[in-house]
Structures are given as structure tokens and as C-alpha cells.
Amino acid sequence: MANKQLKPDIGGQAVLEGVMMRSPEYIALAVRRPDGSIVLKRDPYVSPAKKHKWMGWPFIRGAVSMIMMLGTGMSTLEESAKMGGQEEEEPSRFEKWLAKKLGKGVDKVVMGVAIVLALAMSIGLFVLLPNLIIKLFPEGATGGMLLLKNLASGLLRTALLIGYMIAVRRIPDMMRVFRYHGAEHKTVYNHESDEELTPENAKKYSRLHPRCGTSFLLITFILSIVFYSIVDVLVLQLTGYNLGSHYLVRVLSRILLLPCVAGISYEVLKGLAHNESGVCRALRKPGMALQLLTTAEPDESMLEVAIVSMKAALGEMPEGPLTPEGYVIAVPARKNGEE
Fold it and tell me: In this model, does residue 2 exceed pLDDT 50?
């Protein structure tokens, strides 16, 4: 039975003490400050598919979404830190030197360095390290051996992902981010229902959502095993060259083919999320289970932040006063004695 989808998909991201929501028209970011106030920023949003039609084509849109998640995610984290009143760290001498040489602002250079470091860590942990395991297997260019090597590296990659998630849950600040992640999901469910957006209504919904980026990651990791195996066999049969015979060639091929895997994974995620058949519900379960690590139960104050962000993304911008930085004060600071 197909799921009736009457409302546009709303995407989001949890940050430290806040939630970002993205609708087809706006990106809204709401953050709770230490004084209890909620500050809000909203910007117009135009999807890449509206700018360039081909970016909305099936399979291509998944690769575009992966790139957007990285860029938007890093900039949202930086903006949320400013909105939360956190003091900015003094740029290093290297960052100042790089900004001068490139003729860019220090903020943009710092963001660029952060993205490069994040990419380097991701490639090292989830590409370089898992592919080292193939050295434990005997040399062989049969289809079965290629599948076995891809299965081993894929399982190690998935185990590293789960281990990483378990480790970061032990960090108090990250645990709060995971609680806001749960608030984001509950608020999206509340929006998709016919009920008013309130903390009381939102809290009864599940903190696990089928369109979550966590599910997207797991689908990508699983499909990569099959996809890379097919590519390895095809290259071997058509050219006689074994991609697994050289470590650097194998790693480079995995990085270059990642957008293809992401494109397929995105279509699978959308298909599973928008279909309520028994088979699709069963296939969604592994990704939903992994969200038990990346989400936690929020309190009503966290749901309030997520709802402020959701309403702004849907066009309901509050007319509150502005902070000196230009953010809207959607909810005023608590008075002395208030919880």
C-alpha cells in the first residue's frame, strides 16, 4: 500500500542547542541560548533542481544531496555556534595566512579548512582503513573472491560507523545534539500529521524517522558492497584488470564511484520512506534501528526549539525583537525564578 504523501518533505539537522529545518522555500535555524531565549534565523532556499533541472533527475539528485548535506551541515554548525552566543576561536596563523593568500575572508577559510579536515577523517576512517583488510585475503581475481573482499571491507566499514556512533554518544554535548535530533524527527512527524504544532503533540511521536540521514548512511554502506562488487567484476571481464590488485587504485575507484552509490541509495531511501507495504517497512528497520544511536528522547524545551524552526521554515516568521547580531528573538529570555 503506497503511503499518501500530501505535504512536501521537510528536512532538518540537529545542532548544539538547536535545530535547522529546510522546506522548499526556506532554511530556518533556531537555537536556545543560555538565558532561555530562542533566537531564529531564516534564509530563502532555492533547491539545486530549480536552478539546474538536471540536478533533480533521479540518481543524480542523490549525489547532489550528499554534497549539499556536507556543505550546508558545516555552515549550519558554524552559524548555530554564533547564534548560541559562543565565543569564536581566534583563527590560527596558518588560517590568517591562507585567507590573505586566497583573498578570502577568514571565516570562509576556517570553514573550508573544517570541511577538508572532515572529508579527510571520513575518507581515512571509512575508505582507507576498511580497504586495508583486503591485504589479509589471498590474491585472486575470481568473482567470488572479489565479492568476499568487498563484503569484508563493507562489514568493517559498517562496524566502524556503529562504533563511532557509540563512542560519540558518550560525549555530553553530542548527547544533547542527539536529543535535538530526536526533537527534529518528532516535529517532522507532527507537521506531517493534521495536528497543531505543539510540544505536547510532538512528544508522542517516534524519535525515529524513515527519511533520516542515518538511514541514508546505512543504505549507502550496504549498497556499496553490491555496487563495488559488480563494478569490480565488470572491469575484470571487460578489461582483464583487477581493481583490487593495487590498494591506491582500489581506494581511488571507491572515492570516485561514491556519488553513484549515493545516487542509488537516495532513490532507495525515498522509495522505502514513501511506501507502507510490509516489505518496505521491514527494509526500513535496520536504518531505524541505527537511529537509536543517533537520536535520544528530547524534553519539551527542545521540542519548542524544533517547532520554532519548523514554523519559520513553513513561512510563519515571528515578529519578535532583534538581537544585536540581527537574529529574531522568537522566545524571550526566562525571568528570574522561571524554569
Answer: no
- Specify whether the CB–CB gap between 80 and 325 falls below 8 A: no
Distance CA 207, CA 297 (A): 7
C-beta of residue 140 within 8 angstroms of C-beta of residue 133? no
Q: What is the pLDDT of residues 170-203, one digit of tens each?
A: 999 999 999 999 999 999 999 999 899 999 999 9
- Phi, psi (rounded to 5 degrees) for 329: -85, 95
Across the chain, the runs of DSSP E, i.e. the strands, are: 11-15, 18-22, 26-32, 38-44, 328-331
> In one letter, which amino acid is 60?
I
Choose among 329, 68, 20: nearest CA to 60.
68
**Residue type, position 244, single letter:** G
The span from the CA of 83 to the CA of 326, in Å, is 10
pTM of this structure = 0.88
Neighbouring C-beta atoms of residue 100, cutoff 10 Å: 11
Separation of alpha carbons 53 and 175, rounded Å: 39
CA distance 193 to 313: 17
pLDDT digits (tens, 9 = 90+) for 243-270: 878 889 999 999 999 999 999 999 999 9
Q: How far apart are CA 251 and CA 255, in angstroms?
A: 6
Q: Which residue has the higher pLDDT, 50 or 94?
A: 50
Helix 143-168 × helix 278-294 angle, to 10°: 50
